[in-house]
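tl;dr need the bound structure. longer version: we got a ligand (iron/sulfur cluster) that a collaborator sent over and nobodys looked at where it sits. i said id run it. heres the input, straight from their email, havent touched it
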Amino acid sequence: MRERFWERYSLGELNSKEWEALCDGCGQCCLQRYVDGNMVTVYGVACELLDIDSARCKDYPNRLRKVPSCHRLTPTSVPKHYGWLPETCAYRRLYKGKPLPAWHPLLIGDRSKMRKKGITVSHYAIPSGSVSRRQMERHVIARWPVSRLQKRRATGAVTPKTRRP
Ligand code: SF4
């Protein structure tokens, strides 16, 4: 990986290793969510393929086939999907011209600081299938507005996503 590549190159100029390294592994994009009107609602309920302990996808190569609402995140799809990613997500931040968060593993060298700050879904996500549709409202953990432009670009309603181009 090139030195401090996240500051020197645009998302589209990154190689696959650099692209992957931007993901801090928080797992927040693998929580169930719903887009209704202008609002994104995020639930503390994991995607069926999320391994909650590691906050990693259990079947990354086949995720798009197994979970039709999963999106492939690429330099060209970030403009369409960034509104569904959390504020802390490096893809969203770099796309918006913001720096990496101070606790990011690329700056610290490991995940110790992000773990200390609780930037992982491992300690609160509950398994997919453990909540009925009627109970979902009790598990809302965040809501934020989607810009009109994004709404026009976006299709579908939900989103665990993916990181690899
Ligand atoms: S893509 Fe972003 S939100 Fe998803 S796990 Fe990686 S850093 Fe977290």
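gonna send this back to them w/ a short note. The pocket of iron/sulfur cluster is lined by residues 23-29, 85-86, 89-91, 163 (CB under 6 Å).
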